[in-house]
Amino acid sequence: MECKLAVSLMHDYLDDDLSKEQQIELKAHLLTCLDCRMQFKELERTDMLMFSLTHHASAAPFELTHRIMSAIPQQKKQQLWVKWVKRHPAITAAAIFLMVMLFSTVSFWDQDGQLVVKGNDLEQVIIEGDTVIVPAGRSISGNLTVENGKTQIYGDVKGNLTVIDGSLYQASTAHISGQVKSIDQAVDWIWYKISNIFSDVAYR
């Protein structure tokens, strides 16, 4: 498989749009190509970040909009601000993206830590305190998302498993057919995205 084809398939893989044969071919290529493997990891990290932002974007939309609008200069200074924006469009776009990302992430990580479980076949799941258990011999059809809790998988998950701000234990009897995502360490993510954005701007 050529690297160009592998890169085009990465996005479809993260969106669960690849056939089993294509998934196998892509995974085989990633095992042998370091550059493609690094690029896939970057795409996967970005995908996890965007999932966490969109997953919690509805938490405080009014507050987020209010904070962004409050940061815009008043009418007297608006002409200078508009001129600066026109001269530096790339930096302006990066700054707006950073502002939205920071406010969304802070809102997400400041929540009360209540356990949230989403997915299909939740009657197959056992919840003990803050621990979500998929027992051996039981199967969940579709994706499973666990937020602010401990996840223990002994049975089958026929889809993606996403653990947000929690821990995951996967027994030897477990089988997860989709992707396993663990989203945490918000501060590290913020600095990672900041460094990437300013690196891209610097090279333009």
TrEMBL record:
It holds the Pfam family zf-HC2. InterPro entries: Anti_sigma_zinc_sf, Znf_put. Residues 3-37 form the Putative zinc-finger domain. Belongs to the zinc-associated anti-sigma factor (ZAS) superfamily. Anti-sigma-W factor family. This is Anti-sigma-W factor RsiW.
